[in-house]
Amino acid sequence: RPMSTSFPLDTMRVRFAGATNIGRKRDHNEDSIQLPETERLAIVADGMGGHASGEVASRLAVGLINDHFNETAKQQTLTWPYKVDRDLRTHTNRMITGIMLANLEIWERSQRESRFKGMGTTCVGMYCLDDAIIIGHVGDSRCYRFRANELMQLTEDHSLINDYIRMKRVTPEEAENWPHKNVIVRALGMKESVQVDIISEKPHLNDVYLLCSDGLSGMLKDDQIQHIIATERDLDRMCDRLIDGANEEGGVDNISVVLARIEAA
Length: 265
Prior knowledge:
Layout: E1 5-8, E2 12-21, E3 31-34, E4 41-48, H1 53-76, H2 88-112, E5 120-121, E6 123-128, E7 133-138, E8 142-147, E9 150-153, H3 160-166, H4 172-175, E10 197-201, E11 208-212, H5 214-217, H6 222-231, H7 235-248, E12 255-264
Antiparallel strand pairs: 1-2, 2-12, 3-4, 4-5, 4-6, 6-7, 7-10, 8-9, 8-11, 11-12
Helix pairs in contact: 1-2, 6-7
């Protein structure tokens, strides 16, 4: 897999690393990831649906969101040499629109072709501006932030179990052994349109952001994830250690990890 790459931010840099792994129990990988190439955009998508159609859905999501960012970047070169990077609203809209377009395409394809019936995918995307990080998500793929030795889950799972916890019908402890743990209540491809949750963060030096599928978060507890991030300096190795950790705990699902660390320029 590619080694980590870094991109300039205002007075800092952001370094990315990532990998996806089939895990120990599945016969194919329905996760897809995107590491930044031209745009400072990273995505994790976890597909679902029979006959490998989840693979199709997650690949579509990653490809279409990426295409949308590349297309809209071309439109913005008109304002060069002024920095457009600071306009949070514009870039938040790019994230929402990109994810909504992907949703529509996946939904239409699942309506049109019987072999794709019922396919869908989660999605968590992260776009780095000079002074802000925009996270868009649908489903139970997560974004965490590690800052000052504390790991914090930024996204909220769009899952049945999380709805129950929120309504206080189940305690987080009871949820551990709940039978319908992986029922998703919001995903790309479920309906013609989708609501995208957006979070924006101000990046601090030494922050580490983690995007992952539930193949990681379902296997490793938050304190295990926190320990690996806290004790590993090398970003590529950090990625491998997280995936190895999930596999050691059973690896019952595909595992995808994208890391972004804010470093000194």
